[in-house]
Design a protein that fits this description.
alpha/beta, eight-stranded parallel β-barrel, two-stranded antiparallel ribbon, binds flavin mononucleotide
Length: 457
C-alpha cells in the first residue's frame, strides 16, 4: 500500500497568529475569532477535508521581548489578543463527528490534577477526539504573570514536564480500573470504590494523592503532541509524544530532524513509527504557478515588519529592535525556542539577515512555503513525505479560515486521486484516525502504561 498522508490544521485563538498582519487582508476572518461561528466553520472545513485534528497553539503571555514592551505586539496583533484554546472545543465537537482537537497547554504553569480533569472531561464529551500539545513555554511574560519571578531554565522546565506527565499518566491510566463504574441501582452503587485508587504521587515537583476526578474517558490518555526542538526537547518528545510538530525550511533539515527523532524514539524502547512526525507547511495555491507567486507577493505585502520582528524576538528571546535590519542573525543558545533561532542561525545554505528572516517569519511563522498549483503542491507533499520520512503535515494559514478552505477544495482531492490520502475516516477516536482502527488507547510500550501506583484505596 502506498504511504498514506495525515493532515492537521494549525490555528490559534488570536486574529492572525502565524502570519503577522494578515488580519488586514480582505479574505481574512481572524478578527472574528471571538465568535463560535468562526470556530465551527473552521472545524467543519477541516472535517470535510478529512483532517486528523485541529491543532490549537497557545501562549499565556505577551510578546514583549522587542523593545522590552508589549506595544509592538498590541499594535500588530502579534498573538495578542490571545484567547483560551480549550473553550471553543465543545462547540466545535458538537458540529463535527470525527475531527480531533489538539489544544496547547503548558506543563510549566498548569497543575496536573486540574489539567487531567479538564482533558478527561473534553475526551468524554468529544467521544475520544482530544489530544494535548504538551509545551514547556518560552516567554518570560508568561512566567511573571503566572507566579514566578522569572522564566525557569529550559532543563528545569523539561524536568518538571516529565514529572507532570508521570502524574497525569497515573491519574488517567491507573486511578480508575476498567469496570469501576457499575451503575448498579439495586446495590445503590455507581462505582465500585475498590476499583477507584489513590495514586499517592510524591515527587520533586508534585504531591498528588488522587484519585482522579473523572471516570475513564474513551481514550483515557489524550493523544500526546509535542514540538520540542532542542536535544532535551527531542528526548522528551521521543519518550512521551505520539506526534511531533516541526518547522523547517528545507527538506535536508527535515530529514535530519526525522532521522534523529526516530533514533531517539527507539532508544526509549519504543518503535520508531510510534511517533508520528508532522512538519508544518504553508500552502499558497493558485490556478497557475504565476498566479500563486503573485498571491505570495500580495500576502507578503500585508505582513507587518515591526510585528514580525516582535514575534521573532519572542520566539528566540533576542530583542531585535537593537539589530540593524541588515545584520546577520547570530548562532547562540537560547532559553526560548531553540528551533526558531536555529532555522536562521544554523542554516547551512545561507546566512540570514534580520530583514530576510522577518520577511520569511511573517508568513506561517517562518515555515516552508509550498507555492504553486494544487498538482505542484501535491508533488511537494509526496516528495517531502517520502524523502523526509514523515507521516503528514501541519497546515499553517495566511488568511483564516480561507487557507484551510482552499487547501481542502483544491489540494485534498488531488491527494485523494493519487491514493495517498483517506476518502473516509477509519475510526471514531482521534488515536484510531492517527494510528489505525482499534488503536483507541496508548500502546503497551508507552511509559504511561509501565508506571505502577501503590494501590491504596
Ligand atoms: C511547530 C511548533 C509549534 C509550537 N507551538 C507552541 C505553542 O503553541 N505554544 C508554546 O508555548 N510553545 C510552542 N512551541 C514551542 C515548543 O513546544 C517548546 O516549548 C519550545 O520549542 C522550547 O523548547 P525547545 O527549545 O526544545 O524547542 C512550538 C514549537 C514548534 C516547533
Amino acid at each position: 500500500m502506498v504511504k498514506q498522508i495525515h493532515l492537521n490544521g494549525f490555528i490559534q485563538n488570536s486574529p492572525s497568529p502565524h502570519s503577522t498582519g494578515l488580519w488586514k487582508h480582505d479574505k481574512d476572518q481572524g478578527t472574528t475569532h471571538n465568535s463560535l461561528a468562526y470556530w465551527v466553520e473552521a472545524a467543519q472545513i477541516l472535517e470535510r477535508g478529512k483532517f486528523d485534528a485541529m491543532f490549537i497553539a497557545d501562549v499565556l503571555g505577551t510578546y514583549s521581548v522587542y523593545e522590552d514592551s508589549h506595544h509592538a505586539a498590541a499594535k500588530g496583533a502579534v498573538q495578542l489578543p490571545a484567547h483560551d484554546p480549550l473553550i471553543p472545543i465543545s462547540a466545535m465537537a458538537a458540529a463535527t463527528e470525527y475531527l480531533g482537537f489538539a489544544p496547547t497547554i503548558s506543563a510549566t504553569y498548569a497543575q496536573p490534577y486540574a489539567l487531567a480533569r479538564q482533558l478527561s472531561t473534553l475526551d468524554h464529551i468529544t467521544g475520544g477526539r482530544v489530544a494535548w500539545n504538551v509545551v514547556t513555554s518560552y516567554l518570560e511574560s508568561e512566567a511573571v504573570n503566572l507566579g514566578l519571578s522569572s522564566r525557569l531554565p529550559k532543563e528545569l522546565r523539561y524536568d518538571r514536564a516529565d514529572e507532570f506527565l508521570e502524574v497525569v499518566y497515573k491519574l488517567w491510566e491507573h486511578s480508575w480500573e476498567n469496570g469501576a463504574v457499575v451503575y448498579d441501582k439495586d446495590r445503590d452503587t455507581f462505582a465500585d470504590p475498590m476499583k477507584v485508587h489513590l495514586i499517592n504521587h510524591e515527587g520533586e515537583f508534585f504531591h498528588v494523592p488522587g484519585p482522579h476526578l473523572v471516570e475513564p474517558s474513551p481514550q483515557r490518555t489524550p493523544v500526546l503532541f509535542q514540538a520540542g526542538a532542542s536535544p532535551k526537547g527531542r528526548d522528551f518528545a521521543a519518550k512521551h509524544a505520539e506526534a511531533v510538530f516541526t518547522k523547517n525550511h528545507s527538506l535536508d533539515a527535515l530529514k535530519e530532524y526525522s532521522a534523529d527523532i526516530r533514533r531517539r524514539t527507539k532508544l526509549q524502547g519504543r518503535n520508531s513509527e510510534d511517533v508520528r512526525i508532522f512538519p508544518m507547511i504553508l500552502p499558497i495555491i493558485g490556478s497557475t504557478e504565476e498566479e500563486a507567486y503573485a498571491k505570495y507577493e500580495d500576502l507578503t505585502d500585508h505582513v507587518s515588519y515591526e510585528g514580525t520582528a516582535s514575534l521573532l524576538s519572542g520566539h528566540t528571546g533576542i530583542d531585535f529592535s537593537k539589530y540593524d535590519p541588515d545584520q546577520y542573525i547570530e548562532d547562540m543558545e537560547t532559553d526560548a525556542v531553540q528551533g526558531n533561532l536555529d532555522m536562521y542561525a544554523k542554516d547551512p545554505n545561507k546566512k540570514w539577515t534580520l530583514r530576510e528572516a522577518v520577511k520569511n517569519h511573517g508568513l506561517g511563522n517562518g515555515t516552508v512555503k509550498f507555492i504553486g498549483t494544487p498538482e505542484q503542491i501535491a508533488d511537494k507533499i509526496e516528495e517531502w513525505a517520502i524523502e523526509g520520512d514523515v507521516d503528514g503535515f501541519n497546515i499553517a494559514q495566511t488568511y483564516s479560515p480561507g487557507t484551510f478552505l482552499e487547501f481542502v477544495d483544491h489540494v485534498v482531492p488531488e491527494l485523494q486521486n493519487r491514493g495517498i490520502y483517506r476518502q473516509e475516516y477509519e475510526g471514531k477516536t482521534l488515536r484510531e484516525n492517527m494510528f489505525g482502527k482499534g488503536h483507541v488507547h496508548l500502546p503497551a510500550n508507552h511509559p504511561a502504561k509501565k508506571l505502577g501506583i501503590t494501590q491504596t484505596q
